[in-house]
Amino acid sequence: MQQPLAYRMRPKRIEDVVGQQQLVGPGKIISRMVKAKLLSSMILYGPPGTGKTSIASAIAGSTKYAFRKLNAATDSKKDLQIVAEEAKMSGTVILLLDEIHRLDKTKQDFLLPHLESGRIILIGATTENPYISINPAIRSRTQIFEVHPLDADDIKKAINRALTDSENGLGKLNINVTIPAMNFLIHSTNGDLRSALNGLELAVMSTTPDEKGIIKISLDVIEECLQKKALTQDKNGDAHYDVISAFQKSIRGSDVNAALHYMARLVEAGDLPSITRRLMVIAYEDVGLANPPACARTVTAVQAAEKLGFPEARIPLADAVIELCLSPKSNSGISAMDAALDEVKTGNYGDIPADLKDAHYKGASKLGHGNHYKYAHAYPNDWVKQQYLPDKIKSAEYYEPKQNGKFEQALGAQYKRLLHAQRD
């Protein structure tokens, strides 16, 4: 039985991993571990299809260590014992433990001494946040690395590699993928390479070659194999980003019907990740301090949508879109932050006032650190006049309050009172 294309195309060397260059690129942490052969156990967490298994496979291939794969939920303690016995005989085994967040205490207790000895190099894979879902005993013995959805260039690179690889890929076949089909395959899988390769393989293997022996993969074929609809047949692949842009601009412009229309396009395309991510950005970028409760309710709606999945996810998302459209708007938060960043990037902002510097270590007082710091809670109304900004920028003002909602009106009035008192 032939293995799936996504399985066959897994990299055998660190240099062949697609994406996650913040971890496996030249000079980065995992590459350095492999080069020095000083591997430590680790947890890789992030969305499906982003390369967690590929990284583990590439580490094993690059170091020539034995590589075994188990699932924390379905494989037993006996399976772990077999790996441990192999490690005793061969010296080191790299164990990819999928769904590590479901590791029970019995299996964990068995694993811990083997991790301590270094006989088993554990690479745990999970889609859950390890700081919440994984036992502290395991966390304390591993390094935790986040992996991210692959970008369009990474997906394209991997697809082209699969199309040209004659040994493990589809290179022996005469395949012609149209530009719209390729763009849709790249953009519609939301950074999930496994999904893209599975869709490609199904399209190729289920399409009858023409009279010249060419397997022609059209947009219609890819849509059917991915069970997603293209937003438009945009030859440049920009339609996806155009819809997302129009979605945000419609909410910013308070047009409920336009916002619902563009979200409907994304719903029809099955693109839940783009909708949820963009809604949270919109909430804090465009509504922000004018209506903070709407921001909180948007996060709740997103969480509900992710739990529900389509088609029901459209219900809380629609509520959030309507509320954000009709809410007062303010971009004062992002504007203030960007103004502060612009000043920091110049590098010409001076030193932290001595009174604010850390005074907890021995000798700090001799340096003048914290000697005259005024503890705000020791004063009436928990406030006291004191300089906090460096001398060079002591009069800087980044925040400019807007008057579009009662909450920010109150914040703005308080901001002005405090600023006047500070500088009086």
TrEMBL record:
Top-level taxon = Bacteria
Which InterPro entries does the record match to this protein? Answer: AAA+_ATPase (IPR003593), AAA_assoc_2 (IPR032423), AAA_ATPase_RarA/MGS1/WRNIP1 (IPR051314), ATPase_AAA_core (IPR003959), DNA_pol3_clamp-load_cplx_C (IPR008921), MgsA_C (IPR021886), P-loop_NTPase (IPR027417)
Q: Which residues form the AAA+ ATPase domain?
A: 38-150
Q: Name one GO molecular function term.
A: DNA binding
Kindly list any coiled-coil regions of this protein. none
| Keyword tags | ATP-binding, Nucleotide-binding
GO process annotations (BP) = DNA synthesis involved in DNA repair; DNA-templated DNA replication
Q: Does the keyword Transport apply?
A: no
Keyword Cell inner membrane appears in the UniProt entry: no
Family per UniProt?
Answer: Belongs to the AAA ATPase family. RarA/MGS1/WRNIP1 subfamily.
Protein's UniProt name: Replication-associated recombination protein A
Provide the organism lineage as a comma list: Bacteria, Bacillati, Bacillota, Bacilli, Lactobacillales
